[in-house]
Amino acid sequence: MVSTRRAGISSTLNGPHHRAALTAFMVVVIAHWGEHIAQAVQIWGLGWPRPQARGLLGVPFPWLITSEWLHYGFAIVMLAGLWFLRKGFTGRARMWWTVALGIQFWHHIEHLLLLVQAQSGHFLAGAAVPTSIAQLVFPRVELHLFYNTVVFVPMVVAVYLHLRPTRAEAELMTCSCRPVLSAAPVAAAPA
Length: 191
Prior knowledge:
Layout: H1 2-13, H2 18-45, H3 55-58, H4 63-66, H5 68-85, H6 91-120, H7 140-163, H8 167-172
Helix pairs in contact: 2-7, 5-6, 6-7
């Protein structure tokens, strides 16, 4: 029963409700990416000290920026959204969506590592705070802006290609994003 329900949800999300689900997911992704952009503007544009540069929501709600549970939760939401909506994509769009999924999988691993450290109190490489693997080389703000950008860009390419498929890709589409295909012109009969 559970697998049937899961298949039903997947079929619904990747069929008649793919465009709506994809739109809702992209709104959430853009809002999150916007938070990282706002934090970058606060640091490099406005000259705020890093601890005060918390994005738009982090300024009135500072606990948002320090909650590893929240960051990990969002990494899981991103991973789940990329996974569940993937079946609706075909051709070139599916390839780009899969690239975003692969990058997000690694980003999720980094957040899992941060969460485990925050919960255990044991930090990677003797750091004073939870530290991801790539954070051993790059500062956290820049690293997460980079991660979110390199997940976002292939998603945008995938959505663009998905909404503008080639005729062959459109014929394979079974979701609500499928364009209406006009009938092929009929060749004139020989005289």
